[in-house]
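I have a small job for you when you get a moment. Can you supply me with one protein entry, sequence and fold together? It will help me judge whether the discrete encoding reads sensibly. Write everything out right here, beneath this request:
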Amino acid sequence: MTIDGPGGTGKSTVSRVVATKAELPHLDTGAFYRAATLAVLGAGVDPEDAEAVERVVADLEMSQEQGRMFVDGRDVSTEIRGEAVTSAVSAVSAHPGIRRRLVEMQRTWVVEHRGRGIVEGRDIGSVVFPDADIKIYLDATPEVRARRRAIETAEDYHEVLEDLERRDGLDSTRPASPLQVPEGAVVMDTSSLSLDQVVEGILRLIRAKS
């Protein structure tokens, strides 16, 4: 199953809960892009410089195990959620070479898990796994997403809203694998839904396919 959508829709929380209840492995593909961005920033490279960014990422060993993200064997799960990474990740993830390399890693993960899992991101149902048996696209109004993120991070609501809208624009207009509703996806607007309601809706789809 693929779960796509913009930031602040509850995608990560929903994916983890669904995976636990359905007893399926879970992959947060966004963590790969954040890990790559962390490495790029650590190397002092301009996130907009495609060639330099690709050189940094080319030799990285990245893996995700039980919800933890590792780069060259080091747990970076906390570091990749920092403000600097959040501000630069859209620029890094827009480079086609980076997307090709990380998509390869994501597909390998699914093969290693025998084709089973809940995989979340921004291009999973449209590009990475277009033949997935169930595709979900979570959405919500920018205001609701910003309010959720501000509560979660204790940041200023207006600053969060501005950043979400900036990232939405970058992610939906990038030439390589833009954020979009995958063909055949079930669109769920979570603006007025609780976590339990969203999770139960997705579990019903899983049960119907079983």
Observations:
- The longest strand covers residues 135-139.
- Strands lie at 2-4, 26-28, 62-65, 68-71, 74-75, 118-121, 135-139, 186-189.
- The two ends are 12 Å apart (CA to CA).
